[in-house]
């Protein structure tokens, strides 16, 4: 146990990274699934221990190979980083048991092992992004997760999955290239890639055009990765045509990790500069966030495919996260941070519920879901409950996030922004109601009245995640305390 405690910062990355090739060596779907599930459960346990260490002892700094920064690669895990690691590993531990039945239905048998290998690589890349304290190492893990994601999306049976994967690959490559160009400019001005070192070196060159342009490249690059409006065009098709288990995992994790990476770069690497204020872009970022909140919700209202509807909803939810950053006080920042966790729970549960629908009826189009409340009552109830969180109904995690954001907006004297947050929630009522109306108030097609539920191996993980969405909506002490403490630390670094 002492070995695990000492090296836990790197184990959460190494365990899934080293486990992935074994799936390719075995080349057997069921064995690969069992192995991947065991690894994900073990990594979830490690992430809990990591969070406990951070809460008990403060920020963890781990020097890889004994080489101290800035010469060596350093892992730097604070409260937000530990929370992101917990999100990724928890979602993986829940989605992997769900994935077996779903993948068997939606991916050809000879590719099952490849799906599990890519899932483990994606997990390693996402966790690596959350723990690394080296700006170039962040790019490496970004590419590991992205390359695995492209393959996972392309594994979908629908041929449009290939087009969706290609679009994501092109735009993802553009985003990563933008980040590397910006990072190269920063390295040219400072001679360092260590995030802590950069924070102390950048103030001396903050007024140079090179640093201004570098920051723009970095923000645009990660804006593409996190699907910030209007850089979101890759996301709807990727979520719609990927296999259900893949969509559930990616929707709950990938954009959240990218949001965290952007927060860390802005408030840690550029923290002493406070770039949003120094360069006068706070208002522009806020406008983009609010535009995303409304554009995503408005487009979602008119979708006939429910996976696409939820994909556009994710664009709106990313807007809430970025809005918390742009307001710039502790409650709003805490709201953005806590929404990363909360959105992972509710959107993961919703996409898993849709996977149950697809498993039974082979479609997630609205017209095909008519009468689903009678045919699949447990699945339909899960969709409704998840919809409550999207709206922000009290006792759900969605309410907690929006409460913090509204509190932050009012504390900053931005009552019009608080009003816009509530108005955007009303748009969520419209698109959620469209699904509810079809499921409960329309009759199923003739010959489709038989009551059939998805297997329990799909329903149980869905309800576990849904239960967590209500649990942390009723008792938000843990997430609220972590988010508020992290927000105060991050903002302290930007003064």
- Average pLDDT across residues? 85
Counted up, domains total 1
Q: Which consecutive residue ranges, at least 5 long each, have pLDDT under 50?
A: none
Order of helices and strands: HHEEHHHHHHHHHHHHHHHHHH
| Helix/strand class | mainly alpha
What share of residues are in beta strands?
under 5%
Number of strands: 2
Largest sheet: 2 strands, antiparallel
Taking the alpha carbons of the first and last residues, their distance comes to: 40 Å
Radius of gyration: 21 Å
Number of helices: 20
Name the strands of the widest sheet in spatial order.
1-2
Shape: globular
Proportion of residues in helical segments = over 70%
What can be said about this structure in brief?
By secondary structure, this protein is an all-alpha fold. It has helices at residues 2-26, 29-57, 79-106, 112-131, 135-154, 160-190, 195-201, 209-225, 235-241, 244-269, 275-278, 282-301, 306-327, 330-361, 372-375, 377-391, 397-411, 415-441, 456-474, 477-493; strands at residues 60-63, 74-77.
How would you describe the overall organization of this protein?
- The protein is globular and about 70 Å long.
- The chain contains 20 helices and 2 strands.
- The protein has a two-stranded antiparallel ribbon.
- The model has no long low-confidence stretch (mean pLDDT 85).
- With 495 residues, it is mainly alpha-helical.
- It has helices spanning 2-26, 29-57, 79-106, 112-131, 135-154, 160-190, 195-201, 209-225, 235-241, 244-269, 275-278, 282-301, 306-327, 330-361, 372-375, 377-391, 397-411, 415-441, 456-474, 477-493, and strands at residues 60-63, 74-77.
- It has one domain.
């Amino acid at each position: 146990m002492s070995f695990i405690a000492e090296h836990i910062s790197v184990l959460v990355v190494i365990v899934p990274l080293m486990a992935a090739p074994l799936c390719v060596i075995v080349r057997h779907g069921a064995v690969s699934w069992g192995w991947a599930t065991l690894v994900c459960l073990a990594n979830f346990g490690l992430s809990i221990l990591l969070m406990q260490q951070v809460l008990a002892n403060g920020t963890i700094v781990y020097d890889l190979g004994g080489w101290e920064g800035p010469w060596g690669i350093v892992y730097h895990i604070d409260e937000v980083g530990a929370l992101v690691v917990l999100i990724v590993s928890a979602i993986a531990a829940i989605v992997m048991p769900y994935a077996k039945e779903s993948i068997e239905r939606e991916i050809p048998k000879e590719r099952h092992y490849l799906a599990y290998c890519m899932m483990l690589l994606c997990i390693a890349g996402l966790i690596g992004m959350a723990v690394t304290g080296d700006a170039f190492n962040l790019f490496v893990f970004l590419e590991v997760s992205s390359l695995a994601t492209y393959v996972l999306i392309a594994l979908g049976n629908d041929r449009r999955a290939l087009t969706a994967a290609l679009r994501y690959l092109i735009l993802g490559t553009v985003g990563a290239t933008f980040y590397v160009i910006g990072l190269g400019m920063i390295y040219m001005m400072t001679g360092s890639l260590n995030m802590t070192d950069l924070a102390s070196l950048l103030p001396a060159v903050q007024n140079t055009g090179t640093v201004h342009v570098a920051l723009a490249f970095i923000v645009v690059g990660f804006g593409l990765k996190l699907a910030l409006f209007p850089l979101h065009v890759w996301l709807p098709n990727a979520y719609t045509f990927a296999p259900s288990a893949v969509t559930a995992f990616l929707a709950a994790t990938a954009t959240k990790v990218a949001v965290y990476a952007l927060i860390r770069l802005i408030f840690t690497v550029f923290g002493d500069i406070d770039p949003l204020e120094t360069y006068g872009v706070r208002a522009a970022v806020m406008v983009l966030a609010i535009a995303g909140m409304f554009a995503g919700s408005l487009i979602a209202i008119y979708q006939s495919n429910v996976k696409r509807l939820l994909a556009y909803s994710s664009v709106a939810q990313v807007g809430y996260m970025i809005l918390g950053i742009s307001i710039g006080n502790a409650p709003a920042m805490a709201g953005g941070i806590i929404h990363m966790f909360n959105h992972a729970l509710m959107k993961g549960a919703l996409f898993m519920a849709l996977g149950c629908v697809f498993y039974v009826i082979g479609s997630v189009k609205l017209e095909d879901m008519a009468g689903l409340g009678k045919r699949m009552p447990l699945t339909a109830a899960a969709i409704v409950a998840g919809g409550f969180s999207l709206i922000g109904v009290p006792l759900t995690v969605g309410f907690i996030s929006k409460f913090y954001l509204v509190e932050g907006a009012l504390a900053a004297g931005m009552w019009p922004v608080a009003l816009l947050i509530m108005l955007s929630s009303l748009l969520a009522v419209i698109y959620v109601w469209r699904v509810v109306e079809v499921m409960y108030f329309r009759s199923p097609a003739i010959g489709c009245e038989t009551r059939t539920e998805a297997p329990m191996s799909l329903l149980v993980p869905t309800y576990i995640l849904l239960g967590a969405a209500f649990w942390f909506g009723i008792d938000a002490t843990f997430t609220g305390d972590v988010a508020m403490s992290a927000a105060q630390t991050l903002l302290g670094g930007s003064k």
